[in-house]
Design a protein that fits this description.
heterotrimer; B: mainly alpha; 11 helices; 2 strands; C: alpha/beta; D-Maltodextrin-Binding Protein, domain 2; 2 domains; nine-stranded mixed sheet; 11 strands; globular
Chain lengths: 285, 279, 274
């Protein structure tokens, strides 16, 4: 193959790469351009800190929904992190190799279950349970329900990535600790977990990002009231559900406000990504 | 209070953690099992190949299977060449300078954008601005934007995992960069790349938020790229919304789950086969 | 092995491209003329029934129906994203610009509660107070001592718009109301929650919910026909400019005897000008 042909192919690949990256960049730009004018007009402070969302009257305050999204994300982590990381620790450190060889792929297979199925199960079982046994507003559509549903949904991600992180810890770390007389559990808490900390944290952050970005399952179980929550048994609306509920008919400034909500979501994801990078940076020994 | 003996601590910890593990595994299996078992009863040839009647409350799901296929294939046709090409260029043809790092960060961010925001973009840009209206084209384009970052990222990881010694040998024997890529790097990275693509298929098939606003909710079999069509996931969502836990809902969910699980299982099987071959 | 793999990949790629091109060649549209309808979730099931009936008569026509809400329908008709927009509420003055509105039927809005709820009848003021959160407990209106969970639709919904103009009369629906995005999902919430109250299209009421008499009048079919039940809203077809060709034929069908038979069989009323 002649060097000219090689350079030709190189340029084609460059063109493809540039096209994809430009396309993705243009999308980001489009969202920002559509959303920014409204943020400028009403002021970033008022947009983010006002709870008055009355689009048909020109008032766009998304604080209730930011709080809604954050509550759901935190709730999801409360449900999923103890269960998920605990499960991963057990599978990686205490279970037999054969058990792990069967269970880990099984859990990873479940990565791809559509979120609407989780929402469905939530409507079938969790909403009635919360309504009958936990009272609250008496209907079961609340932050707690959404947290349980999304918590189950992100379990495969957290378990999978935590197992990977734990198994990536070199065996010599454990061997050294055991040789010094520590029990397996002491080794796990004092040595292995510490070493795997960044990978587990990355999995948790990814789970949180998935929870914040989820839309349809949340709409099904959370009630979508635009209020500031007083308790986990209150119904709220998340940023994503708001976009979905109003996208079809929003025009003019209302649609710009929805794009601005997209910008806020984008920024949240960027922050989470930056956190992941920081957490998983290679420390110079 | 005297601290418990380390051995006792370990026993308590082991018991609690095994309980957690059991809860996690049982819950996930119970969800899948419940939906599949209740839905499998509904699945037969009439269901899979018939047309929906009475707004999808009875009859079959053929149009939705077809729409799902069309949208997924469109998405893949666009994102695989673009994604793979970009991944090859980013890993093989550029150095690890800060432009590449910035680009990677950007791609990671776009991979994390909630699908509803992409749906908002797709609705505003493809459906309204370009006047494609609700159509397979709008849906396929939006879905391709969703999986493009994912394919770039997973292909990149697969390519980077190829040891540099392989490349050194290729260049040492006088190969060009492109020959190195096609004859050494890609064959080695192929299982990882294919796994990434198959996982992307799973994402497409299960996607609801961005598809419902771009491909629409039509009950018909789409006859052209400009026709609207409801995917199986969208249909399932609408069924649950309108009819609650009906037989058709279970049936659609079971079909959805079974096909995604089969596709993903195939990905893992492929991965294992190639790994054993390569190593 | 490598060449076999290449052939397989090429074959798949070729098949996929062929599939897409074959379906993508929209020139098929000549054989299958298409009418695109989008809008109200309340009207959606009925347009589907009309479409099925119409396609039996005219097999060369395909009717594509989207559901996004009445406001979506009006906007889509105005921006020519669809041929016919549907709305289950009256249009506002500023929306009417350039659009031709045809009433195809009338539908009642039913106020629904759980079958176990003891409350049978409410006045318009009471419903208004419930939805503006001035009445917060069922005890205040003759029911159990439990807080009222009121369910409403999203703001672009025609059903909500009609409910607001007929019952709320300018009073805002309180933000703590649960919001659902279709009649069916409102109904599902009420079906499963003993202390919920909601409003849905009368034609979608089933035996799993109980309807409330408004100002003493039950939403029975005869009360609808004789006009005693006042919570009624129009089902509208909205077209940009004058309807012509396929669109006009379909609208004529809907307004004609066969179309109206389909609708009245489901419990809808014929339009006012009949």
């Amino acid at each position: 193959m002649s060097p000219t042909k090689d350079r030709f192919i190189s340029s084609i690949l460059f063109a493809i790469a540039s096209f994809s990256i430009t396309a993705l960049f243009v999308i980001g730009l489009f969202i920002f351009i559509e959303g920014f004018p409204i943020i400028l007009r009403i002021g970033i402070g008022k947009f983010i800190l006002s709870t008055d969302w009355s689009p048909l009257e020109g008032r766009f305050g998304i604080l209730s929904m930011i709080v809604g999204s954050l509550c759901v994300a935190v709730g999801t982590l409360i449900v999923a992190v103890p269960l998920g990381v605990g499960c991963a620790i057990y599978l990686s450190e205490f279970a037999s190799k054969r058990t792990v060889a069967i269970i880990k792929p099984a859990i990873e297979l479940l990565f791809a279950i559509p979120s609407v199925v989780y929402g469905f199960v939530g409507v079938l079982f969790i909403v009635p349970f919360v309504r009958t046994h936990l009272g609250g507003q008496g209907h079961g559509f609340c932050i707690l329900t959404a947290s349980v549903v999304l918590g189950i949904m992100v379990l495969p991600v957290i378990v999978g990535m935590s197992i990977d992180a734990l198994q990536a810890v070199p065996k010599v770390y454990r061997d050294g600790s055991l040789a010094l007389g520590a029990t397996k559990w002491q080794t796990t808490t004092m040595v292995t977990l510490r070493a795997a900390r960044s990978g587990i944290l990355a999995g948790v952050i990814l789970g949180m990002a998935n929870a914040i970005g989820e839309t349809m399952a949340v709409i099904m179980v959370i009630g979508n009231a635009v209020v500031m929550p007083n308790s986990p048994l209150d119904s709220v609306r998340t940023l994503t559900s708001n976009i979905a509920l109003e996208m079809g008919y929003a025009t003019g400034e209302h649609r710009q406000a929805l794009f601005a909500t997209g910008v806020v979501l984008f920024v949240i994801i960027m922050i989470l990504n930056a956190m992941t990078r920081y957490v998983t940076r290679k420390r110079i020994a | 209070m005297k601290r418990p003996h380390p051995k006792t601590q370990e026993l308590i910890a082991k018991t609690i953690l095994s309980l957690f593990a059991a809860i996690v595994v049982m819950t996930l299996l119970a969800i899948v099992g419940y939906v599949v078992v209740k839905g499998v009863r509904v699945i037969n040839a009439d269901f899979l190949f018939g047309s929906p009647k009475s707004m999808g409350r009875e009859g079959g799901i053929l149009p939705f299977i077809i729409s799902t296929l069309y949208i997924t294939v469109t998405g893949l046709l666009i994102s695989i060449p673009l994604g793979l090409g970009s991944a090859i260029y980013l890993t093989e043809y550029t150095s690890e300078g800060w432009p590449t790092k910035v680009i990677r960060f950007g791609i990671d961010c776009l991979a994390g954008v909630p699908s509803i925001v992409l749906g908002l973009f797709g609705f505003t840009f493809f459906v309204r601005l370009l006047n494609f209206s609700w159509s397979i084209l709008s849906g396929g384009l939006t879905v391709s934007l969703m999986i493009l970052p994912f394919i770039i990222r997973s292909s990149e990881e697969a390519i980077r995992a190829v040891p540099s010694s392989y490349r050194d040998v290729a260049f040492a024997t006088g190969g060009t960069r492109w020959q190195c890529v096609t004859r050494v790097v890609l064959p080695c990275a192929l299982p990882g790349i294919v796994t990434g693509i198959i996982l992307a298929i799973g994402k497409c098939v299960g996607e609801t938020a961005s598809v419902i606003f771009t491909a629409g909710t039509s009950l018909r079999i789409p006859m052209s790229m400009f026709d609207s069509g409801r995917t199986l996931a969208v249909h399932f969502y609408l069924l649950v919304r309108e009819t609650g836990a009906s037989d058709m809902a279970y049936g659609s969910a079971a079909t959805l789950l079974i096909s995604i699980l089969v596709v993903n299982f195939f990905a893992y099987w492929l991965m294992r086969k190639f790994i054993s071959r390569v190593s | 092995m490598r060449s076999k793999m290449k052939t397989v990949i090429l074959a798949i790629a070729f098949l996929s491209v062929a599939l897409c091109l074959d379906s993508g060649c929209g020139k098929r549209q000549d054989r299958h003329a298409r009418i695109r309808i989008s809008g109200s979730t309340s009207i959606f099931p009925f347009v589907e029934m009309l479409a099925e009936a119409y396609e039996k008569l005219r097999p060369d026509i395909q009717v594509d129906v989207q559901a996004g809400g009445s406001t979506v329908g009006i906007i889509s008709a105005r921006d020519e994203l669809c041929d016919i927009g549907t709305s289950s509420r009256q249009l506002h003055e500023e929306e009417k610009n350039g659009l031709k509105i045809t009433e195809i039927a009338r539908d009642g809005i039913a106020i629904i509660v759980h079958p176990s709820n003891h409350v049978d009848s409410l006045s318009t003021e009471q419903i208004r107070d419930i939805y503006s959160h001035r009445i917060t407990s069922w005890k205040e209106i003759g029911g159990d001592d439990a807080s009222i969970a009121f369910v409403t639709r999203e703001e672009g919904s025609g059903t909500r718009g009609a409910f607001c103009s007929i019952i709320m009369k300018g009073v805002k629906i309180a933000t703590r109301g649960l919001v659902q995005d279709s009649n069916g999902s409102v109904r599902e919430v009420v079906v499963t929650s003993p202390y919920a109250i909601g409003y849905i299209s009368l034609a979608l009421v089933n035996e799993k919910v109980k309807t409330i008499a408004v100002d003493g009048v039950s939403p029975t079919h005869e009360n609808l026909v004789n006009g005693k039940y006042g919570v009624v809203r129009p089902f509208l077809f909205v077209v940009k400019g004058e309807p012509e060709g396929q669109v006009k034929s379909f609208i004529d069908f809907v307004l004609g005897e066969e179309g109206q038979k389909v609708l009245t069989k489901e419990g809808l009323l014929s339009p006012l000008n009949k």
